[in-house]
Amino acid sequence: MDSQLQQYVPVLFLLLVALAIAGGILVLSELAGRFFNRKIAARTTQMKDTAYECGMLPIGEGSTRLSVKFYLVAMLFILFDIEVVFLYPWAVVYREVLAQNAPLVLGSMASFVGILFIGYIYALKKGALDWKS
To answer: Is residue 110 in some structural domain?
Structure first.
């Protein structure tokens, strides 16, 4: 029983070191923040306290509303991207699996690509990829 518990001593040591490092970083950042804020507090102005937006003056609301088209195109991109990811494993083992059952392999992939193509045509017909409207 003692030998099993002794195997966890390095894990416990690692946990203690990780907690000590995390706590030390928090304490040092708090101390450094207090030290530097004392020195900088005398030199702050209203312009220095405003938010920095890539060199532009922060006028207006922080985030603009995006069109639904933007989100639709983003979802379609994710959908077709995931579909392409499914093609890679099939392409890697294509020759090995083709020797076992060629019609089943080609049929399943043809139906997969066919459904993908039908989805793409549907998105085109609905105007999901048209940025101007």
So the answer is: yes
Domain count, the chain: 2
pLDDT of residue 23: 97
**Cβ-Cβ contacts under 8 Å for 79 (sequence gap 6 or more):** 119
Burial 3-39 (b: 16+ CB within 10 A, else e): eeeeeeeeeeeeeeeeeeeeeeeeeeeeeeeeeeeee
Domain that holds residue 117: 68-126
Q: Locate tokens 């030290």: which residue?
A: 35
Q: Positive or negative CA dihedral for 102, 104, 107, 111?
A: negative
| pTM attached to this predicted model | 0.45
Phi, psi at residue 56, to the nearest 5°? -95, 150
The three-state DSSP-derived secondary structure of 93-105 is CHHHHHHHCHHHH
Residue 116 near residue 85, CB atoms below 8 Å: no
Give Cα 33 to chain centroid, integer Å.
Answer: 31
Indicate whether 75 pLDDT > 80: yes
